[in-house]
Amino acid sequence: xxxxxxxxxxxxxxxxxxxxxxxxxxxxxxxxxxxxxxxxxxxxxxxxxxxxxxxxxxxxxxxxxxxxxxxxxxxxxxxxxxxxxxxxxxxxxxxxxxxxxxxxxxxxxxxxxxxxxxxxxxxxxxxxxxxxxxxxxxxxxxxxxxxxxxxxxxxxxxxxxxxxxxxxxxxxxxxxxxxxxxxxxxxxxxxxxxxxxxxxxxxxxxxxxxxxxxxxxxxxxxxxxxxxxxxxxxxxxxxxxxxxxxxxxxxxxxxxxxxxxxxxxxxxxxxx
Length: 272
Known about the structure:
Elements: H1 16-21, H2 23-38, H3 47-66, H4 76-103, H5 105-110, H6 117-144, H7 150-180, H8 184-197, H9 220-233, H10 240-264, H11 268-271
Helix pairs in contact: 2-6, 3-4, 3-6, 4-6, 4-7, 4-8, 4-9, 7-9, 7-10, 9-10
């Protein structure tokens, strides 16, 4: 009997069954990234706390003390650290996802597997760092006497998922472009740096007029970080309009990134 192997007619279809068949590879790649990240480091997983914590100190000195940046009545250290925890998950994951196909060139060119496993495993690795860094946030909440609301506790998983899918959507677009156009690796750090200053990490969304505040939602991390502060610190209600706009934009970016990735995925092994 003749066996014919051919690509699917509809390249945009997501094959859950195929992903499940390669679940062992997904586990291996994720665990490999976790081990390599902290291999032969002196302080190990404490590096997950070091980056946002030191950044928080620097931002507190320059923006909180010297520039007198408003923080909606919240002590600036915990105000900025709440944003940095989510921002670090997004920015670090985006950087790694965007370079994942180039860094795994040997696997991509020699072995067949669902390519989307690589960017997803990169993001999962950084979720471990996010959870470790969140311990410091809990300590700061106890120190400053903040208690999350019930809505705040319930919305945390939603915000994490929004961060993951925002990263995945934008990352798939950049990583797919990076395979063919190596300029992306030089553009990406600049893009992330600029994105930091148009995301309400060091400032509150309240500095923007309420009439135009929804525009901030075009950046999905704006809604995530603002809702995180409102829910986790329990100081005010969640801005559902801003969060809704961010959610819609997240879905849009995911679709654009995934469709482009699936369209060019078949050529990765040839051009990488």
